[in-house]
Amino acid sequence: MMISIFFMFSLILSSSYAAVQDFCVADYKTPTSPAGYACKNPSDVKVDDFVYSGLGVPGNISNLSKVGISAALVAQVPGLNGLGLSMVRADLEVGGVVPLHTHRASEAIFVAEGKVIAGFIASDNKAYVKNLNKGSTPALVYAVFSSDDPGVQILQNALFQNDFQTELIAKTTLLDTAEIKKLKALLGGTN
């Protein structure tokens, strides 16, 4: 009984400390875990841990998708650690696309410039798509995530930039093997 009370008291103290902690700046010298980075010693925290100017720089759009991504995740901004918040900037050339992808977090977007067709597919396979138009120039889009490290898995890379057997991809996607091999060659996959 006494051990249970002590455990509960310890749990309350540790969680109440976390609840009143203003921030937990990432200590990059420690390994990351599913909960994020360990906290840097508060005496070592600097204002630059909370400041990042990378979202003001256009991304490189000279690629197959004509999209450049600039990220402000915990890896770039140590002050985001544990806050459940991050952003990216996407620069899209006219005709550029952000490939179908998933994140480990919710995402909201803001179109600052250009025309973008945006949407998502719900778990019941219903597509929700909207034209967002701020002119006909190249697009500038900002996305905010409900995680300091939302991760990303791009569908075409998951399917064709790997060593997963072509025959198994053909069976599960109903694509023919010649098309799969062509896509694997384009994206760097093997097998």
Number of H- or I-type helical stretches: 4
Measured on Cα atoms, how large is the radius of gyration?
22 Å
| SSE ordering | HEEEEEEEHHH
Q: How would you classify the helix and strand content by structural class?
A: alpha+beta
Helix content: 10-25%
- The low-pLDDT segments are 4-19
Summarize the main sheet.
5 strands, antiparallel
Mean pLDDT: 86
Q: How much β-strand is present in the residues?
A: 15-25%
Biggest sheet, strands in spatial order? 1-2-6-4-5
State the shape: globular
Task: Please identify the oligomeric state.
Answer: single chain
Q: What's the number of extended β-strand segments?
A: 7
CA-CA gap between termini: 60 Å
Molecular structure report:
With 191 residues, the chain is of the alpha+beta class. It has four helices and seven strands; from the N terminus they run αβββββββααα. The protein has a five-stranded antiparallel β-sheet with strand order 1-2-6-4-5, with no helix packed on it. A hairpin with a 5-residue loop joins β4 and β5. The radius of gyration is 22 Å and the shape is globular.
Features of the shown structure:
single chain; 191 residues; alpha+beta; five-stranded antiparallel β-sheet; two-stranded antiparallel sheet
